[in-house]
Every structure is written in C-alpha cells, then in structure tokens.
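Dear colleague,

Thank you for sharing your sequence with our group. We've completed the structure prediction you requested, and as agreed, I am returning the results in plain text so they can be pasted directly into your records. Please verify that the sequence below matches your submission; if there's any discrepancy, let me know and we will rerun it promptly.
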Amino acid sequence: MNSTTIVDIERKIPLGITNPYIIKCSDGKKYVAKFPGNPEGTKVLVNEYVCVELAKLLGLPIPNYKLIQIDNIQKYKNVLTDIDLVNGTVFCSEFIDKATNVPGYQVLTKISNKFDTIKILIFDVIVGNNDRNPGNLLINLKNNSLIMIDHSHVFVYEALWNEHNLKELVGSKIDISKMNKFNFENLSLCLNDNNYITEILEYINHIKCLKDSKIDEILDNIPNDWNILDIEKKILKEFLLDRLHRINEICIMLNIEGGD
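Please find the predicted structure tokens below.
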C-alpha cells in the first residue's frame, strides 16, 4: 500500500456496473476508482488487480494503478450515493484524459503499437476475458497508442467465480465463442499484417518463461480486506497457470503463427 490519499471525488463515470468514479489524489493525478462497496463486490477488485499485475509482467499497454486505503468514506456519503460506504482498499487506475474508443480495425493499423493488438487478444484468452467491449480498449490520443482498461469481469465467471466453478475450467476446453465479437474481430484482423511474427514470437516466449512464482507474488499481495479465501487463491493460480502453459494451444485456436 502507498501513502497516496483521495482528496476529492470529481464525478461518476456514467458507464460501468461497478459504479466507478473519477477521483483526485494527493499525488496530483486523477484515477478511475472502484470502491470495495461497489454493487459487484470485491471480486471485481481482485480481478482488476491480478490482471493489471499480469499485464505489467507481460509488457502490455495498461494504465498505471494504485491501491489506495480509505478510512473516511462517510465523508463522501453525499457523492457516493450508489455504493455501500465501506472503508478499505480502493482500486485506482490512472485516468487517461485524452482517449477515444476504437471505432474499427482500420484505426488499429495506424497506431504506434499495432502489434500489441495481437498480444491483447492472447492475453484476453489467458485471463478468460469475454468482456473486451468497445469501451475498454482505447486509443491514447497523446501518443496514438492502444491502451487496455477495465478487467473487472474476467476469469470466465466474472464477478461470480469461486473455487468450484473455476476449478472446472482447469484442463478443460478453452471456449472463445463468448468473447466480445466487436473487439475480437478487430484484433483478429490485425493478423493480416505478417510482420507481427517476430514480435509475437518474443511475447510467446516471454509467456513460456514466466515463472510460477510470479503468479504467487501477485496473489500473495491481494489486499486482505477484499476477503478472497486461500482456497480461491489456490484455484485462481491453477487456472492462470493452466492457461499460460497452454499458450501453444491458444495460438492455434487464434490462428496465430508462433505456437509449436
């Protein structure tokens, strides 16, 4: 945990069932904040945290984040009217103030990090993200780069995963049929550029070389007040390692050259 504090709640973001807010913090930055008392519960905070840490390990374009402790949430009771006023750890993703949704495939051919499209496609299969909707894949207009946000509903079962339903997915067939069609198709079209092969091979090798202990480190640092059980951590680790170790299979499913 860091010493950054919330100094103001600026406004609610109109979209999102977790009822996120844009906040100002003591470090002078703005963040998109998801609170422990959001309608979906703390599992979505676990999902966000695990995915952003895994994305960082894999070098993917994702905003910086902070976990900020709040112990005076009652102070904002007149503003935070649609969440339970629960003190605890807030997941805060740095706000990208000049960004726009991806309108279609052609834009993805002109961005500065165009091969990150394929990396994100692979990542979404690994983490079971069927919710890569148009609102959570953005173009940062400051540097014309693709950036991914919002991983609150992942691990296939989204906010409702547990040690039982997640366990059933380990070793079972990976189903990509429920992935959001709009961005799945746009990202898949980026495979038309055969120049991706060298960069994606490096990415795949990076995944293959990822040590299991790195997953342990991520899970061990989940805030206690998010109330995730030890057995849930254990099964989540099994799920993630199963997907990571099946990277060749995932590449074949996506028609990506690079898998053995």
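Summary note from our side: Strands lie at 6-12, 21-25, 30-34, 65-70, 88-94, 99-101, 137-140, 145-148.

Kind regards,
the structure core
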